[in-house]
């Protein structure tokens, strides 16, 4: 292998979990070299035939590597093959993809026993660090413990794979609204106002509010002013005047907002022009209740949509649901008990709540579906409620979002503090990804439901446990 000429060039050694997380990750390192140890290829080979969702990612990674290396000779593979240009990369210069037979290296290099795959990969990185002393050798892995062991073994540079992370801290995640200090109109001064039917729109200078995006809500400290950003350009922002009083007067299937955050959520949920509504917030803030109440209101009362499709991943990271008896809907029933519980709450004042629940489920055509069976479908004129979406990856969410056809509204709800997946964190969750990716899409709105309204007990637990 040729030595790198200076410390500005980097050599990234990829762990297997990086390619399983993003199969084409090797295209994201711009002009730097990417090293794939032979142990990584072996691990991909063992994973590709398993009957799990991760096997698909392993096969995609293998096919991608084959596409780059298919015409290379053994010597060229060891020297490095030029990587194809990545459309997302800003730099036009390209690095090399290098395959290293790490089995040839002595186990004593890193001081770790060589019978574990993680240790072989660390051993490979330490060997390359010694061989290329004038270059920066970086081990990239999603495994926290492997990063700790690599540093302990003497590797200077160890990193997590963060290319697909849109934010570094969950505290930076978009809430969907901005609070302006003081009185909004005192800060604006003069502005142009127009009336369109029953709606009032204000055109204010762009300098009035910083970093706005489409369908973001604007509040001030007066407890009266509320508006939603409908459009903006370099000079001005167009606001739809809503007012807090109007937000709090929204009603969906007998449900009224208990705070202004629920009012903003209902405003977005009941607006057919907003095709994607993302509800985030702590347990007990009303995400599922508002989503289901809005769906029933728009289907039964207003006749805008034809049916409700409720889906969520099962606790085994969207794996098989076959061990439960019955049809697909009967299999999904235990995971979707939150929906049936909510329906009972909405009809608890009826003479027979169970009969009312069953009647409404039939009248609104409520269907329970598994994430496993969403691929390939085209859902038309329906409300799709994706509950507990914090446990889904970005690719799983993409599968569901791309199923939505004309006249379909998708409601994604989730609590980033309650992630059950072993492979996801709040910043790598698919829910975080779509909040940031869709925040400037004119057909989407995000609302963080700040505040627990389930009960005094739930509120205390959320704040103190």
UniProtKB/TrEMBL annotation:
Residues 10-148 form the PIN domain. GO terms for cellular component: cytosol. Pfam families: PhoH, PIN_4. The keyword Nucleotide-binding applies. Keywords: ATP-binding, Nucleotide-binding. InterPro entries: P-loop_NTPase, PhoH, PhoH2-like, PIN-like_dom_sf, PIN_dom. SMART domains: PINc. GO terms for molecular function: ATP binding. Belongs to the PhoH family. In the N-terminal section; belongs to the PINc/VapC protein family. PANTHER family: PIN DOMAIN-CONTAINING PROTEIN (PTHR30473:SF2), PROTEIN PHOH (PTHR30473). This is ATPase. It comes from Pseudoalteromonas lipolytica.
């Amino acid at each position: 292998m040729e030595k790198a000429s200076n410390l500005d060039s980097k050599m990234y050694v990829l762990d297997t979990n990086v390619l399983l997380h993003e199969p084409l990750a090797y295209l994201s390192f711009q002009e730097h070299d990417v090293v794939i140890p032979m142990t990584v290829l072996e691990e991909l080979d063992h994973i590709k035939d398993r009957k799990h969702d991760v096997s698909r990612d392993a096969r995609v990674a293998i096919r991608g590597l084959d596409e780059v290396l298919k015409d290379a000779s053994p010597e060229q593979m060891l020297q490095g093959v030029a990587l194809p240009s990545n459309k997302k990369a800003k730099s036009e210069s390209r690095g090399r993809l290098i395959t290293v037979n790490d089995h040839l290296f002595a186990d004593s290099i890193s001081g770790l026993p060589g019978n574990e795959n993680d240790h072989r990969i660390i051993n490979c990185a330490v060997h390359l660090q010694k061989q290329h002393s004038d270059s920066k050798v970086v081990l990239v892995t999603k495994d926290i413990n492997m990063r700790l062991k690599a540093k302990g073994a003497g590797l200077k540079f160890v990193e997590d794979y963060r290319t697909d992370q849109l934010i570094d801290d969950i505290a930076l995640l978009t809430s969907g609204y901005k609070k302006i200090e003081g009185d909004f109109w005192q800060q604006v001064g003069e502005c142009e106002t127009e009336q369109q039917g029953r709606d009032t729109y204000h055109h204010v200078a762009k300098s009035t509010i910083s970093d706005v995006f489409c369908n973001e809500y604007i509040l001030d400290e007066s407890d009266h002013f509320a508006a939603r950003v409908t459009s903006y350009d370099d000079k001005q922002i167009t606001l739809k005047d809503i007012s807090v009083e109007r937000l709090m007067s929204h009603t969906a299937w007998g449900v009224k907002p208990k705070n202004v955050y629920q009012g903003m959520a209902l405003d977005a949920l009941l607006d057919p022009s907003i095709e994607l509504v993302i509800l985030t917030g702590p347990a007990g803030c009303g995400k599922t209740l508002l989503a289901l109440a809005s769906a029933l209101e728009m289907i039964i009362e207003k006749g805008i949509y034809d049916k409700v499709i409720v889906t969520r991943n099962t606790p085994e990271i969207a794996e098989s649901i076959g061990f439960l008896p019955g049809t697909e809907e009967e299999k999904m029933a235990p995971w979707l008990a939150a929906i049936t519980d909510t329906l009972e709450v909405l009809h608890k004042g009826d003479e027979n709540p169970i009969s009312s629940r069953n009647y409404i489920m039939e009248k609104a055509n409520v269907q329970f579906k598994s994430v496993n069976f969403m691929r390939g479908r085209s859902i038309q004129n329906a409300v799709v409620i994706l509950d507990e979406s914090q446990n889904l990856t970005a690719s799983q969410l993409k599968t569901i979002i791309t199923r939505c056809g004309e006249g379909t509204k998708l409601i994604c709800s989730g609590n980033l503090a309650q992630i059950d997946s072993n492979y996801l964190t709040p910043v790598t969750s698919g829910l975080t990804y779509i909040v940031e990716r869709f925040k400037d899409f004119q057909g989407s709105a995000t609302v963080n439901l700040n505040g627990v309204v389930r009960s005094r007990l739930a509120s205390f637990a959320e704040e103190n446990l």
